[in-house]
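Box 4.2: Ligand-aware structure prediction
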Amino acid sequence: MEDVLVVGGGPAGLTAALYLARYRRRVRVIHDLRSRALLAPLAHNVPGFPGGIAGAELIARMTEHAERYGATIEKGRVTRLSAREQGGYDAMLDTGETVSARGAILATGVDTRTVTLDEGDHDAAVRAGVLRYCPICDGYEQQGAAIAVLGSDLHGAAEAMFLRQYSDAVTLIPKERVALTAHQRADLSASNVAVLERKIVAIGHAGQSIALTLDGETVPRRYDILYPALGSRPRTELAEQLGIAPDAEGGLVASAFGEALRPGLFAAGDVLTGLDQISVATGQGAMAATRLHNWLREQEHHVVTEDTPVANGARPRR
Ligand SMILES: Cc1cc2nc3c(=O)[nH]c(=O)nc-3n(C[C@H](O)[C@H](O)[C@H](O)COP(=O)(O)OP(=O)(O)OC[C@H]3O[C@@H](n4cnc5c(N)ncnc54)[C@H](O)[C@@H]3O)c2cc1C
């Protein structure tokens, strides 16, 4: 029996594992190698890395760091999570193995809705930096670039407006059709964000540009960067198996990193509704680990409670 099972080997899960290992807990991390951080070619906003750090290198370093203190980190997919009658959780893996733990942390992240390229390779376009999914992460690096944003709904419009702070040449292009009110269109127009009406029928990548062919056009339009604004889907399925419903935005409630989702079960990182960023995920991972460790200590009667008188009769601070 593990003390803690962490589902997820991204920044949230690996930070939680590091803290728990240093709290001298038996901690096992299971991940299916789909951390979104692995997609970041070079993250420039991770504190302590002024020259930037590749997402894959960050994950490798965080893995080594947690393992150094005894965390076990392994590849696998958790297909089912259930509560044990006698307390704790059973996780069934795709290998058929069952992992049992007294407590668990869900650091399962989100699935980004990606585009399909008609010409070229999607991952090569991401590596080349012409296809990007996170304006907050890398908008700064696109100053002055010709930027296309795919998705002409409010989400796409908000993303285009955000990127407009970095470039004068931002164009919003619909996946199907423009779904904006006259008022929203006026806001975009006032900020010089172009809105095209025809939907994209083909996306191609070669070299340092992205080619977008619109319905009824034969010559592709070229842009330096395409930001698809198609949203993401939080990976909440394991929580849902335990009867925990996602909130209106599809994630787990953000307060969950402070409060347990249910006894001995916490969540951290992108799977919580909030700001999907590495720094946030690491902070929440530390918080969830500490809350869970303290909860385990309570189970072990390894705490001084408010009701326990101390030597001079004063009550201790928690
Ligand atoms: C292209 C791109 C670039 C980015 N650049 C930056 C950047 O520059 N700066 C920044 O701050 N943020 C950046 N981000 C966002 C950042 O990657 C995420 O905020 C961060 O990875 C969230 O960490 P997390 O641990 O919550 O989730 P993730 O890192 O996504 O990890 C989720 C983990 O859960 C595992 N998992 C989920 N379900 C299961 C299951 N059932 N069984 C086993 N394992 C499971 C996955 O395999 C994965 O290991 C970028 C994102 C993208 C897509």
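In the box above, the bound molecule is flavin-adenine dinucleotide. The longest strand covers residues 98-106.
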